[in-house]
């Protein structure tokens, strides 16, 4: 007997790019004090007021099967949130509640990609994107971007060869891993490509509450895009509810109808008490979201000050999200080599740029997810380490 090719080929037959992360976790298990600047996990936990709402709901009996598409109350709350923030008319019929954003990404690609079709995504990318596409039987095709343009895609980057046989394009703004926000001109160029080539646009907007410069614009709000855009949202980053696994897809009503059929045969919905907690959390409005985002706003300023005082490590403009992308090419090392060197020498764990595709070769991603003073210490040590390596390269 053999396993299916689809399941064995999720990572493309190679590494998933997380070797440095796993190495750091082994060191921690062995008792080494490692400063982890790797994954996007808040250093604060879900607010106790949200947990209280969850507890009240669970103890009140909402522990059985919930409605598969999501509770009416949560679907309406998400629809209202999106309508108010984007100006796009949205009702509960445009919303499917999912077990987190990752489940939503899988469902969105299953809805828009037939077996063997191509699915485009922007490089650098969140690490699960190509595996998600392979798992639905489609072919992942990365669209390269460039550090010199802050890794923002241009229409000319989406070549005719890449588009051939494609059915969807996945974008992520604010962006993980780069921290870049796609401005209106960038999104309009992407929208034009989607309309001209008849592509579905899948827009991953899970960091929409973490904006440090400029403004977040959902491509669903651009003319002619609401009918071809599927938006991925989540409570994980906005409300520090990563473990609750609560997200959504916003899409045309017909798409949601089919996605409800998919959910019926896969997830069978999300626990009701978690949905009730999400309704409560959303009802707290901007103050709670700003409170969750505040540590990353502070640490981005700390990082900018440290990096401005030296010239070895470059900073990709960090406009949003909980990460900064650093250019370490002056050391002569790849991102993976630098990350391993930093971990081995100073017990500081970062993610190599190569973990997120080929475009970020020679970069590392730093998650701003430890306390301020520890973060400052780690980042200054990273800079000092890079300067030593660069001086050795020059000599």
Task: Note the run of SSEs as H and E.
Answer: HHEHHEHEHEHEHEEEHHHEEHEEEH
Q: Specify the CATH homologous superfamily of the largest domain.
A: Type I PLP-dependent aspartate aminotransferase-like (Major domain)
End-to-end separation in angstroms reads: 58 Å
Main sheet properties: 7 strands, mixed
- What is the level-2 CATH architecture name of the largest domain? 3-Layer(aba) Sandwich
Give the CATH class of the largest domain. Alpha Beta
Low-pLDDT stretches: none
Number of folding domains?
A: 2
Strand order across the largest sheet = 2-8-7-6-5-3-4
CATH topology of the largest domain, anyone?
Aspartate Aminotransferase, domain 2
Radius of gyration: 21 Å
- Percent helix: 40-55%
Number of alpha- plus pi-helical segments:
13
Helices and strands: which structural class?
Answer: alpha/beta
Query: What is the percentage of strand-forming residues?
Result: 5-15%
Q: What is the arithmetic mean of pLDDT?
A: 96
Q: How many strand elements?
A: 13
Shape, per Cα inertia axes: globular
Question: How would the blueprint of this fold be written?
Answer:
Layout: H1 5-8, H2 19-29, E1 35-36, H3 48-59, H4 72-86, E2 95-98, H5 101-112, E3 118-123, H6 129-135, E4 139-144, H7 160-163, E5 166-172, H8 184-197, E6 200-204, E7 229-234, E8 247-250, H9 253-264, H10 272-283, H11 286-308, E9 314-315, E10 323-327, H12 335-346, E11 348-349, E12 351-352, E13 363-367, H13 372-394
Parallel strand pairs: 1-11, 3-4, 3-5, 5-6, 6-7
Antiparallel strand pairs: 2-8, 7-8, 9-10, 10-13, 12-13
Helix pairs in contact: 3-10, 4-10, 5-6, 11-13
């Amino acid at each position: 007997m053999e396993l299916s090719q689809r399941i064995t080929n999720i990572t493309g037959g190679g590494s998933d790019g997380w070797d440095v992360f796993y190495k750091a976790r082994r060191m921690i298990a062995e008792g080494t004090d490692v400063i982890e600047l790797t994954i996007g996990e808040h250093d604060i936990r879900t607010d106790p007021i949200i947990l209280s709402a969850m507890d009240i709901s669970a103890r009140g009996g909402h522990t059985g099967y919930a409605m598969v598409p999501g509770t009416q109350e949560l679907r309406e709350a998400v629809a209202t949130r999106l309508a108010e923030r984007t100006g796009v008319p949205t009702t509960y019929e445009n919303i499917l509640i999912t077990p987190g954003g990752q489940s939503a990404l899988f469902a969105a690609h299953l809805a828009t990609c037939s077996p063997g079709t191509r699915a485009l995504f922007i490089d650098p990318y969140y690490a699960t994107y190509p595996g998600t596409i392979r798992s639905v039987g489609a072919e992942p095709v990365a669209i390269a971007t460039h550090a010199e343009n802050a890794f923002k895609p241009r229409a000319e980057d989406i070549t005719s060869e890449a588009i051939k046989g494609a059915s969807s394009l996945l974008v992520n703004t604010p962006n993980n891993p780069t921290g870049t926000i796609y401005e209106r001109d960038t999104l309009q160029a992407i929208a034009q490509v989607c309309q001209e080539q008849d592509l579905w646009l899948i827009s991953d907007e899970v960091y929409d509450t973490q904006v440090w410069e400029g403004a977040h614009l959902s491509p669903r709000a651009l003319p002619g895009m609401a009918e071809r855009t599927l938006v991925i949202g989540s409570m994980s980053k906005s409300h520090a509810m990563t473990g609750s696994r609560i997200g959504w897809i916003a899409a045309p009503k017909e798409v949601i109808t089919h996605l409800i059929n998919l959910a019926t045969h896969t997830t069978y919905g999300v626990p009701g008490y978690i949905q009730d907690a999400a309704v409560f959390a959303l009802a707290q409005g901007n103050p709670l979201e700003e409170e969750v985002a505040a540590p990353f706003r502070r640490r981005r300023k700390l990082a900018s000050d440290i990096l401005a005082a030296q010239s070895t490590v470059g900073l990709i403009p960090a406009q949003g999200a909980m990460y900064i992308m650093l250019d370490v090419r002056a050391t002569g090392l790849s991102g993976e080599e630098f990350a391993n060197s930093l971990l081995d020498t100073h017990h500081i764990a970062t993610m190599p740029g190569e973990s997120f595709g080929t475009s970020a070769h020679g970069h590392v991603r730093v998650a701003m997810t430890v306390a301020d003073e520890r973060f400052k210490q780690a980042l200054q040590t990273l800079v000092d380490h890079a300067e030593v390596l660069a001086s050795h390269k020059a000599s």
